[in-house]
Amino acid sequence: MTDRATADGWRTGWRHRDWLNPPLQVVRDQDDLLVTAAEGSDFWRTTSYGFIHDTGHTLLGDFPDGTAAEVRFVADFSAQFDQAGLLIRAEEEQWIKAGVELSDGVLQLGAVVTRGVSDWSVAPVPEWSGQEVVVRASRDGDAVTVRARSGDEPWRLVRVAPLPPGLLRVGLMCCAPTRAGLVVRFTDLRLVEADDSLHP
C-alpha cells in the first residue's frame, strides 16, 4: 500500500469542495476544522428502519480513479450513532460511508454501502475512543477499498465494495442522528495514490 506522504496538496486547505447539507457551524482552528452537526442528520436508505435520510454533512470534491482519499479526525463521541469518516457519492441512491460511530455504547468501525437500499457492517474498536482515527478509501475502477487505523497500528480492512464507474465525489462526513451538540474535529483531508493491491 502507498504511504500517505505522497499527498498532492489536497489536504487542509479545504478549498475546491462543496458542502452537501451544510452543518450548523464550521470553525477553523489553525489547520483543523471543527464541524458542528445538526440533530437528526444522517445518511441511510430504507433497510430495516424504513426511512430515507440524506441529511448528513459532507464536504465533497472529485474522486479520480487511481487515487485514495484519507480523512483524519478525533473519535470523541458520546451519544447513540454519533459518527464521522468519509462519504463516497455517485448520486442520492449510490454511495458509501465509512468511519467510526458510537452504537449501543461501544465505538464501532464500519461502513454503509448503498445501492438503492443501505447495508451496514461494524466491528468494535473501543480502544479508539478519544483517539485520532484515519480512514482511507482507494478507488480502482468499479471497486472502492476502505481501510482504517488509529495511531501507528497496521491498517485494518473495512470493506471492498462496488460503485459505478464515472464521476464520483468524496469527502469528510459527520452525522448526529440522535442529539444536538456534536462537534467533530477533523485534522486532515487529502488525496494520495491508491493502494497498490487489495492484499499487502
From TrEMBL:
Superkingdom of this protein's organism: Bacteria
InterPro entries: ConA-like_dom_sf (IPR013320), DUF1349 (IPR009784)
Gene3D superfamilies: 2.60.120.200
Stretches that traverse the bilayer: none
Protein name: DUF1349 domain-containing protein
UniProt organism field: Nocardioides exalbidus
